[in-house]
Prior knowledge:
The chain has 388 residues and is an alpha/beta fold. It has helices at residues 22-26, 41-44, 47-57, 74-86, 98-113, 188-207, 213-235, 240-259, 264-275, 281-312, 319-336, 353-369, 377-386, and strands spanning 11-14, 32-38, 61-68, 91-96, 135-139, 151-156, 161-166, 175-178. It folds into two domains: 11-183, 3-Layer(aba) Sandwich (Rossmann fold); 188-386, Dehydroquinate synthase-like - alpha domain (Dehydroquinate synthase-like, alpha domain), CATH 1.20.1090.10.
Amino acid sequence: MYSFEAFLPTKIVFGKGRVNDLPKHVKGMGKKAMIVTGRSSTKKSGLLDRVVKLLKDTGIDSIVFDKVIPNPILEIVDEGAEIAKKEDVDLIIGLGGGSAIDSSKAISITACSGGSYWDYTRVGKAKKPQCALPIVAIPTTHGTGTEADPFMVITNRKTKEKLGQGFGELTFPKVSIVDPETMVTLPPDQTAYTSMDAFYHSLEAFLNVNAYPYSDVLAIDSMKRVASNLRVAYENGSNIEARTELAWASTEAGITETLTGVVINHALEHGLSGFNEKVTHGLGLCTLGPSFLEYIYDHAYERIAIFGREVFGVIEYNDKRAATLAIKKLWEFQEVFRCNVPIRELGISKDDFEEMAKVVYKMFKELAEMTPGNPKVEDFVKIYEMAW
Length: 388
Ligand SMILES: [Fe+2]
């Protein structure tokens, strides 16, 4: 039996060319914006200049904070928040991949509520933020789902903690403009990694012990769209139809992640990229994913079987056999995009497993509780060993 509450306050503006609609959606949000973005891609593509001009035409001045790095870190978020306060900005625009949008959310909380972002995290001082500046998200990748969820992932380098956290209504974007045209310049490897991030948001939400029909229908649909369009976009990045399908898959995955939530596979990945910032999130998920499914098989084979039948067309009546085939299909699918990279090739030592597992448990105990079988630290170490 299921019973649930769903709260999805973000206005989603979706489709090719829809960035041009920015003026009408930011009207009334204030007079000055901070655009949070990365160092190069939105400059090279001309998107940053375009957004600055669109804002100017609406009567909104903007400043650009372009220090965001992949796997965003606390120091940069706090620096951005200081500048936003000093410059007295009214709204924050996250422009770029998940790192830019996640940083914009953390800056929005910290600029409005004061102090350091870590003061508000559950592993920091756990203070309740009083307010946040309005957030507008313009994603240029199709994977993180951050355009449709209240979460941000920020790393504290000192403690090696890579923490995903949301602050309810405060950090849902007010508006997200998902325009597949902004995504065509993504190179093949990033196309695969970001799409697999979306895929795992949905797969994990589908396996969550609290899954329910509303989240299931989005989860399955988004995985199907990734399964049938990723190869096209991987081979021909400018195929706008495939980009559109992947962009919608990502947004659907973001919604299902909000409704139900990911499980421990995501947290175990944060262990990997928290210990080595060079690990790309989407790739780390693929490194762990099939081993994770094998580990929880006894607790989840019925759902894994449904996943296999729906997403990969597995034809097998017996659930256990269908689940085994589903995991095999997942390995094969990932192989097409060279995503079956073992942990030993990710610059992480086996000696770190115990510590990584403990950090993950400390930060993501509640994700373990939503994972079939409710795994503990010793189980995490075993999954890392299987993926070694
Ligand atoms: Fe993710």
